[in-house]
Amino acid sequence: MFRRIYTILLVYALAMGQLPARGAGVSPIGVVTQALRANISSANVSAGSTVYDGDSFTTASDGLLRVRVGTAQFYLPGQSAVNLHAAPGGATASLTSGRIVFSSAKAAAMDIEFSQAHIRPTSDQPTVGQITAFSPRELEVRAQRGALQFSYKGETDVIPEGSSCRVLLDPTDEEASGGAPAFPDQAEPKHGRKRRKAFIIFWSAFGGIPLPFIIHEAIESPHKP
Predict the structure, then answer these.
(1) How many angstroms separate the most distant Cα atoms in the chain?
(2) CATH number for the domain including 199?
């Protein structure tokens, strides 16, 4: 009788999205350290919540979320979404919308994926990066601290420390030849633009450090509570 009642309550909780299901033997890979109007796998999340392989995260327009995974951590401001998966030596965070700020002490500890493109630290040193999605083919990458490696479809480039750029994936022939601006606010390609078959990088001025509080928090030691 009690087992039947428990089963009914469990099913109801899962249906309401308050208790994400976990398979037997699934190990945690991280922990939520800060949360405000954020969800994890469609359920409300708060600081101290355990993070598992395959979890998805979203934030409301006025929400925020910070997650620590091993020696790395990432921050999501409002209206952002990411899927997290365990990876050798760390984790892969797949950005589906919005923006993500991450910090890592090791190159393998955090890999940011966006539309099959990958952004990660170039070496085992304290690194802070920011990636913003504009469309399935357009993103902005900022190397706040340390250099970042950008790779897509077998081609690789490096974003130096203190640099900012906008990247266009799979450019058309017209875009690749400079016949049409890839971004509405950039009418002419800037000098030094690097062309690639799989993507084009448009270098730009850093324009100051956005989200200063986020960056301050991100560059703290990942081992600090």
Answers:
(1) 75
(2) 2.60.120.1440
Residue 58: which domain range?
A: 28-218
Helix/strand/coil for 15: helix
11: in domain: no
Q: pTM value?
A: 0.77
Strands 28-40 and 50-52: antiparallel
Q: Which helix (H) or strand (E) holds 115?
A: none
Q: What is the pLDDT tens value at each position of the chain, 225 positions in all?
A: 444 433 333 434 434 444 445 545 578 999 999 999 999 988 999 999 999 999 999 999 999 999 999 999 999 999 999 999 999 999 999 999 999 999 999 999 999 999 999 999 999 999 999 999 999 999 999 999 999 999 999 999 999 999 999 999 999 888 887 655 555 555 444 544 544 469 999 998 665 445 444 444 444 544 444
Residue 17 lies in a domain: no
Is 10 inside any structural domain? no
For 198, the 3-state DSSP assignment is coil
The reply to whether 32 falls in a domain is yes
Three-class SS of 23-71: CCCCCEEEEEEEEEEEEECCEECCCCCEEECCCEEEEEEEEEEEEEECC
Task: Note whether 121 and 107 are within 8 A (CB).
Answer: yes
The Cα 136–Cα 127 span in angstroms is 25
The number of folded domains in the chain is 1
* Structure-block tokens of residue 93: 């965070």
